[in-house]
Write a structure and sequence with these properties.
Layout (H helix, E strand, L loop, with lengths): L9 H16 L28 H13 L2 H16 L29 H4 L10 H4 L1 H14 L30 E4 L8 H5 L3 E4 L20
Parallel strand pairs: 1-2
Helix pairs in contact: 2-3
């Protein structure tokens, strides 16, 4: 799906650069000895507003670990109010029904069925070394179950995931999209032929030309 939002331009970059210089060399007494840390990456109490706050993460963890519906409602409310603070693109919009727009609602029979829509669903390319085999296989099984596609990421996947699952269920742990990337971890002929789609990555999106880093204890 194409995006028409685009990004910032030279004017915004110049303005941000000027503001940083002014903060560093200006006469603000609060910034005389220490610059404002900002909190753009790590969460800070008085820093930049984040969608994923410690409270959001904690409520989700309690909801999942305790199967607690009340904690899930708490999590959902925190996420939804975060959107209202314009932390997400959807927070900038309000859905207007057909009646409010003066149009006749479309018949549900004319709407594309969910079984066709989910075929276009895909997961982000996250290596199993970065999110664990358990999370990686769960994403693959979920996408296979609904008819979508999971992406292996740069780390590839183990060959036993191409086979039927031990419990005999019809949804294998095989990722439909196999990524071939600059690191070339685990790229074999067997890996490639077990793909429905190949994604060739030329450089890291988040860390161009650098590749990802894993904690040493996760390298086997």
């Amino acid at each position: 799906t194409a995006t028409t939002i685009e990004g910032i331009g030279l004017e915004q970059i110049a303005t941000e650069t000027f503001n940083r210089h002014k903060a560093a060399f200006g006469r603000d007494p609060l910034l005389a000895n220490t610059l404002d840390i900002g909190g753009e990456y790590a969460y800070r109490m008085r820093g930049e507003d984040h969608a994923w706050t410690p409270d959001v993460v904690a409520s989700l963890q309690h909801a999942v670990r305790g199967n607690a519906a009340d904690r899930y409602k708490e999590f959902a409310e925190l996420v939804n109010t975060s959107s209202l603070r314009m932390n997400t693109i959807r927070g900038l919009f309000a859905i207007k029904g057909a009646e409010a727009a003066g149009r006749k609602p479309i018949s549900i029979d004319e709407v594309e069925p969910a079984t066709d829509i989910v075929k276009r669903f895909s997961t982000g390319a996250m290596s199993f070394g970065s999110i664990s085999r358990e999370a990686h296989t769960t994403l693959a099984v979920a996408m296979n179950r609904i008819g979508g596609k999971s992406n292996t990421g740069e780390g590839g996947e183990e060959a036993d995931r191409y086979l039927p699952r031990p419990d005999g269920s019809a949804n294998p742990e095989r990722s439909a999209i196999k990524q071939v990337a600059s690191g070339r971890f685990g790229v074999t002929t067997e890996y490639l032929v077990n793909a429905d789609m190949l994604q060739i990555k030329v450089a890291q999106g988040a860390k161009p030309g650098e590749g990802g880093q894993l904690p040493g204890h996760k390298v086997d």
